[in-house]
Design goal:
The protein is an all-alpha fold. About 75% of the residues lie in helices and about 0% in strands.
């Protein structure tokens, strides 16, 4: 259990937080959210401007004209919500086992060799 306290929990958290799949999905989510926010903000600003000046604002040359960024945002959000990390399956299976520490040491062998301290329990 000493290994679990000093290395196991850290390894589990790092394996999830440092996942390349998670990093890529979060980066994509940030980009689509920014694009969607810009598009919606521009449309709202144009509407306010048109109402304030009582003129029709020409948006024909706008980069956001007829761009549906909401669909891309929704797809990326769904991808994030349904993201499956392979390491999570390994860790979940190991943690459900009675010898979970030994199985986690197999998943994270470098840290297991660094600490031979073991609780006599």
């Amino acid at each position: 259990m000493l290994w679990m306290q000093h290395h196991g929990i850290i390894n589990i958290a790092n394996s999830i937080l440092n996942s390349i799949d998670l990093d890529q999905t979060v980066a994509n989510l940030m980009v689509t959210a920014r694009s969607d926010g810009y598009t919606q903000g521009y449309a709202k600003c144009t509407q306010h401007f048109s109402n304030a000046l009582r003129v029709d604002w020409d948006t024909s040359r706008s980069a956001t004209r007829r761009v549906d960024t909401g669909v891309a945002q929704a797809a990326t959000k769904a991808e994030y919500n349904n993201l499956l990390l392979p390491v999570m399956d390994l860790e979940t299976t190991a943690l459900q086992s009675e010898e979970f520490v030994n199985q986690l040491k197999e998943i994270f062998p470098d840290e297991a060799d660094a600490s031979d301290e073991e609780d006599p329990e």
